[in-house]
Write a structure and sequence with these properties.
Length: 247
Amino acid sequence: MAKEWILNSVMNRFQLNFKRNVGPTSESIRKCAPKTVDEWREYYFSNVKPEEHITELGRKLYVKITEVIEAEVALVTEEDCIAYMIQLVIDRTFDGYMTEIKTVYGQLERLLDVTIEPAPDEWDRLFNVDFFIRVGEKFVGLQIKPISFGGGTVQLPEIFKEKSIQEKTHRLFTEKFGGKVFYIYSYKSGERKEIYNKDVIDKIRSRANYLGLVRDEIRKANSSESASKTYRTSVIPFYHSEKMTNT
């Protein structure tokens, strides 16, 4: 296992398995459509790259491991390892956090001024929900979908097809948790991810506010009912004692 990891890592680092070195393997095997590995071997060495070429790549790989990598390993010190671990835990964690802020997830939290939580795995399977916003005991579901532009236009047929498939699970979410499930479509703009359907932000905010109002009304009703019960339990004994005194 360790040997395979070394071979694979060094091969990838020096790009020995790239198309320019080994040819178009995926395209070639589909063109060949072999029934056995021997058929594929014969086709590859006859039509893609000769066996001598692949053997030479293996020799290059051996040189890279035994000379280049071995020399580089000899240069690594204990201080290098300590510095690397600190950089990994502190610097790269911070960089990852800042990258997350730039994502759609982070944008939504700032625009809506709420905490957005990742959905449990069970919700992903049952309701097709990626994230949720908690409003009291109710939840608003969110599903973030990356989209691509083909010929300068959004691939709408695929979007509507997926929505129709997931519509039933989203209704179940609403029945169980009160809130709707909203789609947020994202696209890559340079190094950032942007929200494509920005109008959904007001819809999410409106639904969350509605659930908040319902929650407050329920609290008021419960509070009034509790106060009424307290009043009745305190007044009735007083009424009876007054009646007894008057008689």
